[in-house]
Amino acid sequence: MSNEKIPYKIYLSESELPKQWYNLRADMVNKPAPLLNPETLKPITKEELSGVFCDALIDQELDENTAYFDIPTPIRDFYKMFRPAPLIRAYCLEEKLGTPAKIYYKFEGNNTSGSHKLNSAIAQAYYAKEQGLKGVTTETGAGQWGTALSMASAYFGLDCKVYMVKVSYEQKPFRREVMRTYGATVTPSPSMETEVGRKILEKFPGTTGSLGCAISEAVEKASKTEGYRYVLGSVLNQVVLHQTVIGLETKAALDKYNEKADIIIGCAGGGSNLGGLIAPFMREKIKGERDYRIIAVEPESCPSFTRGKYAYDYCDTGMICPLAKMYTLGSGFIPAATHSGGLRYHGMNPILSQLYDDGLMEAVTVKQTEVFAAAEEFARVEGILPAPESSHAIKVAIDEALKCKETGEAKTIVFGLTGTGYFDMVAYEKFHDGKMTNYAPTDEEIEKGLANLPKV
Amino acid sequence: MSNEKIPYKIYLSESELPKQWYNLRADMVNKPAPLLNPETLKPITKEELSGVFCDALIDQELDENTAYFDIPTPIRDFYKMFRPAPLIRAYCLEEKLGTPAKIYYKFEGNNTSGSHKLNSAIAQAYYAKEQGLKGVTTETGAGQWGTALSMASAYFGLDCKVYMVKVSYEQKPFRREVMRTYGATVTPSPSMETEVGRKILEKFPGTTGSLGCAISEAVEKASKTEGYRYVLGSVLNQVVLHQTVIGLETKAALDKYNEKADIIIGCAGGGSNLGGLIAPFMREKIKGERDYRIIAVEPESCPSFTRGKYAYDYCDTGMICPLAKMYTLGSGFIPAATHSGGLRYHGMNPILSQLYDDGLMEAVTVKQTEVFAAAEEFARVEGILPAPESSHAIKVAIDEALKCKETGEAKTIVFGLTGTGYFDMVAYEKFHDGKMTNYAPTDEEIEKGLANLPKV
Hints:
Rossmann fold
């Protein structure tokens, strides 16, 4: 099909919405290492996880053989309110750059949560409801995941308790109010509601909280409250599974127009959007059917892939969750206070970690100010105001498109635009006012973070 | 076609994007009264308007005979980045209400400006560029129009100067930063940049500004700066013309599925979204081809249709713009400080005013707290967090659907969901905290506002 025929936005029809999620582990030659019980250091069992997580989700978490999981009809019905998401041809950006490259981006921001997080939130809420639970607990930093889970819980009539890092609760009241609109209870963390919260408040009365502490509160609340379970928005394999709806739609849209991607780019925080986007392409690459350059983009301030270590580590600072083998900076690593809250996690999803270790994907880091410059350039021609996280992928997509301009190659570049930046205007303001800085951790800081890995 | 076949979201293809705007005046039996020169009180001429407005837009403003205007290709190309906008079947809301009614809403919030305003902003920016102008000036209150115009100006490389009511500039920094991201200059009004601004600041040093003052500054700046013109986001007939893309798409989507609307509902501020939505339906109604109930929804705090007078009035508090015959509360009417900034204008577009006076449409008022309750109910089942303005239409759509539940009638209800409420969370917070109030102006306040109508 000629270029002229490709619309600005490729919308699949509702009937083309994927009917199954794809479990990349089934096709991996080297499987990701199993999760370990933090006390016994043995592979964790379904029984051990069942007090904290929903049963169906544990199955998805632990299953490395089933290639496809049916997406239940109620989840597909919910998806239909915001999916299939458009695959957008960046005609205006291409023209602005003067590149022969073709640039596409999969846009996941067209829903109230403002990001891809809703893809997994609705799945997790559904399975909780199916299991007859009353509610779910979770933590949220900047608030995207909390918003997504609030929306999903409202839809299925589940109670939703969100522990929001206190500093965000106070400084980002808008996200908090979005969650309340959907009926969630939002508690600033640390709180007096949990033992761990009370302990921390006693020790550090003036603390403004941390994600690690909020996780611990949410897990405690779930495990001690009848009919509640804890749910998580990234890092886990089940989340990557749900997010494969992104990649499956992307591939279907490209196939529809006989387009073949050469380079696939995604930002990498905990890894769920990246894993979801690349899954069906990685499948072809693993099977030798087609080669792709797959690029993970990290902030230089939190370089799990590029400067971390592939080792077993704690997933939370409270050290109560299972151990995962992953690229990590250490659960005690404290990234600089950048404006991409979604990319500040110390580790990386185990599937992606294994793929990276196997040389099946690349990783690069980018500087914060470069990311915002790319975001602004993108917004002015493509209209969409991107989230800082997503803009990491934009930056590298522009870089690759400019390389094509130099070499004259008409490569096809696909990147994930995971969300919108409407709630990130404080960061944009800093950028506009020239007050934004860059920070790369020193070698000493990296070493310090890695010094306390569990002995496995 | 059976109900089962109708998808959640009806997306027209890019090729089905309207190629022309529809000028409802061409088919009206009683034409709207002409704009008058405020000094001579005679119908205003193109020459008199040309120092302030762009030439092509003046033609569109004054033309009451040409039924269709071609949408220039560059505007259609821009439209393709966010249009055709989806017509959404509110399956979840219907189920929640238990109504036999079928509810559809046309969603205009899927773009960074967050509303339908972008439909006219891009047209106005295009014609300014076509005329070889350097830039445009405008005013903005809450910031939706300013954001839309900033995006449109960035796309065409026009300079964009926005006078933002000072209190909004300070209290709503996020909108301001969105505009700056798109390269606009945002000035708090009143400012020292204009004569009118300096005068007001001298007289009222501590003023936090008003929309009327910001309009006057923007008009002065445009008329005194070489290569600049003033543009406006609502009220004018040209804006209604551009917004007919909403109604044309809505009708095309319904026709595609053989659906016939019985009731069409839109919120009414200056009238541009309502006029755009109803235009093609009103055409059939005027021609006697089909009857529709068409309902304008106003806030009880600013009831132009329901308690105003159909008379010539000033469009701006500075009394420098042309006089328009419209339903008005008087240019000096000061509405209560409600949270629907887009519905606080004292008058109503002349086309809609004439149609209402001819009995071709109805108007109702709703209370602010009822509107937010409807907004929240809608958000929890349909996912989208609506703008307070749009939620006025939601409230009446729900009311009509519940009437159907009582009578058992399966009416088809279509309403305009003009935008998202992401920048309105302060209002939602008040609602959640039970601090939101209602206000209807007293008869004395209405009389006072109408006491100073111009003598025409």
